[in-house]
Design goal:
This protein has 66 residues and is an alpha+beta fold. Helices cover 48% and strands 17% of the residues.
């Protein structure tokens, strides 16, 4: 296993939503509709975990220059 990957910060859905500056319900909507494809881990029935590096990659992909 890659050491970078094992040390990557894990965020819950509310933490990930706050990091991206969107509502928790928006994250849930993106997840259920597949509209925005951010990789996640499903832990149990209700808990969803996101890696900070995946959120950073998403932010980089939607960045626009002036």
């Amino acid at each position: 296993m890659n050491t970078n990957q094992s040390q990557d910060t894990k965020l819950t859905r509310p933490e990930a939503a706050a990091y991206l500056g969107v509502a928790t319900s928006t994250m849930a909507n993106w997840h259920s509709t597949g509209r925005v494809k951010i990789p996640f881990y499903k832990v149990g029935r209700k808990k969803t975990i996101y890696l900070k590096s995946d959120l950073d990659a998403y932010l980089a992909s939607v960045r626009q220059s002036a």
